[in-house]
Design goal:
six-stranded mixed sheet, alpha+beta, Creatine Amidinohydrolase, binds zinc ion
Length: about 375
Amino acid sequence: MSTIDIPDQSAAVFGDRLQRAQGEMARSGVDLLVVGASADMRYMIGYPGHESERMSVLVLPAEGPAHYVVPGLEAPLLREQRDLIEIVPWEETEDPAAKVAAVAGIAARGTIAVSDELWSVFTLRLQRAMPEARWREGGQLLRPLRMIKDEREIALMAEAARRTDDTWAEFITTSIVGLSEWQVRERLLDLLAAVGLEPVFCNVGSGPNGASPHQTASDRVVAPGDAIVCDWGGTLQGYHSDVTRTAHVGDPSAEFVRAYEAVRTANQAALDAVRPGVPCQAVDRAARGVLAAAGYGEAFIHRVGHGLGLSLHEEPYLVEGNMLPLAEGMVFSDEPGVYFPGEFGIRIEDTVVCTADGGRRLNEATRDLVVMG
Ligand code: ZN
Ligand code: ZN
Ligand code: ZN
């Protein structure tokens, strides 16, 4: 396993993120932001919170210090956050929603935003504890922050992508004939762990199952003549990799090769369309134009990409109708695909970062058609 030379996140980074979130709040007239255990929380204080039936929330006012209302038994985990936020533990017989209302102070009668991943049961309890507040979605406050990755975030994602590429290089050296999709999945997940990533997911679709883009895996046994779509990734310090490659077991048909080349060209066209200022939908259109021209327009049944970072799917979404302009530091997938029900599917996915000069791929696992045994 290679070691990485990426410095630890300093407390100053989180202080800055909290401050910028407060800036967004002030601009949108939000008095208080409540963030549940989630990637949002991890982004803001370096601790993801523990998702459970016990309320564990970051409470950020538009001005002044943030509080963390946390189950007492979880409080010791917040060692590194003590200089950043005030820890407010609650004991088993106390009501955490009342504690949030207490630290909210006057904001309890103002406008309160809740993060997208705060459990609805907690939102309902907070609403009962602060009946005079006006409630809003908080996702849009954090979106402009999380969407633009800093150098360290990009370095972590590049390293996660590079290691994931290594798992493909290793994977294609061995035969998969006779393995079930579950076993293929297991192999890729094991390879992710072997390169020091936290394995997160692996979707495997062989033969006709490849035409179902979100199938996890099945008992179907891989045989010569199958195309196989593998979509997998892991995390490095919370940051995701997400790559898809399609291989063929035994010699492919001319029809398959033609479709494969079209998808590969579409993947390149989407990359070439990336540049700061270009609307998200332009990247989708670039890939879609290639596939439509090749006669596969109907077979490309999903958007071309999604942002990723601390979450596997996050803003920006590269989809028709999204006029959000791309900006330097955005990281997203480029994943055109074609799906022929009952026959096969093909998808090629890379993670791409938008730089001042255009798109830069973080994945370089071969995009040549791999014929496996
Ligand atoms: Zn997906
Ligand atoms: Zn994927
Ligand atoms: Zn993806």
